[in-house]
Amino acid sequence: MPQARPPQPTRFAIQKARGKGWSTLEVGEELAQTEARFDLMVKVNPRAYFRLIQLDYNPDSGYDGMEFNWTLIHLYDPSKGGTRKSGRGR
Prior knowledge:
single chain
């Protein structure tokens, strides 16, 4: 009989665009603290694309490791000079 997986906290990740993908720079558990770090990274490197995403653990995945569903919270686009909130992704 499969064991039930323990509940996981919601996490927040800061990612930077690299080539055709995204590289995770930091993962935190407090939204306010992660947003402050996101703002600092944008301030330090205003010519790069950054995104802040919410990671929700997916307990129904068939994968033995951990799988997350993610939601976009902020996207920094240097050509537009600001952040915006957007929809869902996986």
